[in-house]
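TA notes, week 10

Several of you asked for a full example with nothing omitted. So below is the full record: structure tokens for the whole chain, then the designed sequence directly under it. When grading your own attempts, check the secondary structure regions first.
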């Protein structure tokens, strides 16, 4: 597996924040994009179209999201049914990882970036 991209998703009731990270040849992590989508089936379709346009098809990618009540379930099933490599992590595990790398504040864009960093680790 030539994993170079990770998509981190922080879910809320109404929407979700996404961060796309790329690991370059020198091992440096580069943010390739971030965006907010509605937590609806239409938002899921827009998410797929967005990341497919941004990812170089010669590299593998994974998707990591935080389990947030029940709000993550529909998107997780949508991605699973598309045969995506998706990982759902418990919120306390994600928070512990983010604290360990210095992500101390709690807001959705930073959480999405922390999740994406976790996905490439």
């Amino acid at each position: 597996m030539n994993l170079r991209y990770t998509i981190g998703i922080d879910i809320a009731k109404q929407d979700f924040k996404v961060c796309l990270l790329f690991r370059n040849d020198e091992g440096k992590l580069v943010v390739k994009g971030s965006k907010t989508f509605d937590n609806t089936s239409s938002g899921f379709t827009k998410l797929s179209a967005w990341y497919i346009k941004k990812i170089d098809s010669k590299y593998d990618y994974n998707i990591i999201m935080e389990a947030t009540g029940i709000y993550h379930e529909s998107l997780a099933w949508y991605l699973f049914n598309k045969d995506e490599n998706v990982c759902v992590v418990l919120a306390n595990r994600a928070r512990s990882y983010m604290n360990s790398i210095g992500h101390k504040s709690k807001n959705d864009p930073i959480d999405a970036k922390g999740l994406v960093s976790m996905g490439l680790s």
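Residues 41-54 form the longest helix (14 residues). Use that as a sanity check on your answer.
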